[in-house]
Amino acid sequence: MEAALAAMRGPEAGVSGDTVAPSESKVCEELWAAVPGAVLVNNVLTEAECRILAGHVKDLHTSKGQCKESSKPRRKSQHHHPIRVSHQCLGGICDRLRPFCPETAGPQNSARLTATSTYISPFLRCYYYKPGDFSAPHFDKSFTEHIVDPDTKKKGRLRQFSSYSVLIYLTSDFLGGETTFFHKEGVRISKSGLTPVRESEGGGERSLDVNYRVQGKAGDVLLFPHGNHSGCHPNPLHEGSILQRGEKLLIRTDLVFSPSLDGRKKRRKKIRR
Predict the structure, then answer these.
(1) What pLDDT, on a 0 to 100 scale, did the predictor assign at position 116?
(2) Residue 172 and residue 220: Cα distance in Å, rounded?
(3) Domain 2-272 fold
(4) Does 210 score more than 60 pLDDT?
(5) H/E run at residue 54
(6) Among positive and negative, which fits the CA dihedral 210, 36, 141, 71?
(7) What gap in Å lies between CA 179 and CA 71, rounded to an integer?
């Protein structure tokens, strides 16, 4: 997986010299209106790159599946295996996506994208959906990293956090399996804050009001907000709808932001007042 990602170069070319031309999807204006902050970028990866990465995702699921007999079973709608890669191997895709990424964590949050080659998290969740599979309605969770005092081991100020989910679609030849966003009005949320109180076994559409569906194709990348940090876009309730035919493979990761020094100074001033 790491070698395949490292082989990706900037926006001028993909593997084997295939050209890539990332561009904002024509549906983006409509998508943004339904899910503020969301952007669908077309043609970020070439067909060859998608085939190679899809093969690695399948291999990961095969190898993990062989050693899961005695492990604790996952919830029914969870179809991913995590893998951690180096920041260096993500340089190519970082270069391609940068023009389409938000500069700050939210419209009223001044935290900025981390350094050019590290703003995409190296913690990748590799999904492999087969017919009948789905991911139940949920909210994506933000990760946070604090500076830790080496002596007391206590957490200090916030060093960085994620504020956007990144879905990298690797296949197109499937039916169903949309990334579906729901209206949140009137929806009761569980104590964890990550799921509705009642999840519909069929993926949620019988009890939740659909807001927008994204049918990503191989090479596309979907960015949308997550978490509940102050000043950011609302965290959208969404699901991976039931896959009816074919195989859906994707990689999910995050955009990482660092609180600005100016923002920290402003917060301290407010506290003093």
Answers:
(1) 76
(2) 10
(3) Jelly Rolls (2.60.120)
(4) yes
(5) helix 47-66
(6) positive
(7) 29
What per-residue confidence (pLDDT) applies to 271?
42
Nearest to 92 by CA among 221, 188, 181: 221
CA atoms of 199 and 111, how far apart (whole Å): 34
**Hey, where are the domains in the chain?**
2-272
Least confident of 60-69, 132-141, 234-243: 60-69
Indicate the SS3 state at residue 263: helix
Of the listed ranges 12-16, 227-231, 233-237, the one predicted with least confidence: 12-16
Q: What is residue 117's predicted lDDT score, i.e. its pLDDT?
A: 75
Q: Residue 5 and residue 18: Cα distance in Å, rounded? A: 15
Which pair of structure tokens corresponds to residue 251?
């990689």
Region for residue 219 given its phi and psi (left: phi exceeds 0; alpha: psi -120 to 50; beta: otherwise): left
**CB-facing half-sphere around the CA of 124: CA atoms within 13 A:** 25
Please, which pLDDT band fits residue 17 given cuts at 50, 70 and 90? low
DSSP state of 226: -
Burial of 242 (0-12, 13-18, 19+ CB in 10 A): buried
